[in-house]
């Protein structure tokens, strides 16, 4: 005899488990962003002390990468939130949040790529 997950676990138990996973993934995203901000702050002050204006691009690149990863975790938590019996209202909210976060991530990725190219061109040996 075959049972589906919903037949073995009541919906309230599934909701509780998914809610815990959502909180863990959201927390992971927040931790990634905070760590990125701290790393960027340390790199910023190091560049400031060296009076190295060129190094500021590297600081922005570092922070951008952490932000992009943090946004991915946040989007994953939003998807998880609607995993069990989503209502049309929840799906609509997810669509709006996903669109905003995806747009942010897209433009952030473009900026990171541009910064990376600028750093590579700056560091490339002159012909």
UniProtKB/TrEMBL annotation:
Keyword terms: Membrane, Transmembrane, Transmembrane helix
Pfam (any one): DUF1622
UniProt keyword Transmembrane, yes or no: yes
Sequence intervals crossing the membrane: 20-42
Superkingdom as given in the UniProt entry: Bacteria
PANTHER family xref list: SLL0939 PROTEIN
Protein name: Uncharacterized membrane protein
Organism: Mycolicibacterium rutilum
Lineage of the organism: Bacteria, Bacillati, Actinomycetota, Actinomycetes, Mycobacteriales
